[in-house]
Amino acid sequence: MTPLVVGQILSPEYSLGMVALSFLISFAGSLVALICAGRMVGADGKPNLAVVTCAAVALGGIGIWSMHFIGMLAYRLPIAISYNMPLTVVSLVAAILISGIALYMAGGRRKFSRSGWLGGSLLAGIGVCVMHYMGMFAMNMRASMNFDLTTVGLSVLIAVTAAAAALWLAFNLRKFTHKVAAAAVMGVAVCTMHYVGMSAASMVCTAAAPVDALAIGGSYMGLTVFGTAGAVLIFIYWVVTGSSLDAPVAGRRVRAS
């Protein structure tokens, strides 16, 4: 292996297996979130906060954050990379909270709201970008990051567009087959934002990585995140849906206001 030189620009590679896992978990999280969204409001017109929470965890914690973290682990450099644990945890909590607020703004009342959808889309898109770049700054390694602002701007545009599509689909699709197709589209959109955002950074070799006692890492971290996220999704699906995929929500019809 050619020795690295301080100031050298590092060329990244991706583990295709981890990239595939990142899409799969994003698709699964998006699908469960779409199923939860149809059950967020009960027959009395009041939001079911437990279901809203489940939808937020499925979309923000699994569909977005877990995809992001597995995608980060797919990113390989010729130097060791670990991740600052406090920043990583904060990014996870932020993704869940922002997704929950955006879902509630768009459809947490009796019907789908265009104004809530637009506001929620902007909030969710910017929030996803904050979470993404916070996760990048959580990287602990012998390199510094330089960003191409044009590519960063493109990633923000993709994030807001993806959030708008996700929120619209969440409250305007009824059939399960349509939700599966929509989840696939959402998975592609979330992954596109992530990998475009990653491409915005140039990594430059430095003398040494900063000492970080709270860093996490390891070769099996990606599979651990995938397995944990999958178990959480199965639990959410079981709690929210019971035995029926297409059970109607009594007294509720989704209409744009």
TrEMBL record:
It comes from the Bacteria. Keywords: Kinase, Membrane, Transferase, Transmembrane, Transmembrane helix. Residues 14-204 form the MHYT domain. Pfam families: MHYT. GO terms for cellular component: membrane. GO terms for molecular function: kinase activity. PROSITE patterns: MHYT. The keyword Transcription regulation does not apply. The chain crosses the membrane at residues 14-37, 49-75, 87-105, 117-139, 151-171, 183-209, 221-240. InterPro entries: MHYT_dom (IPR005330). This is Histidine kinase. It comes from Variovorax guangxiensis.
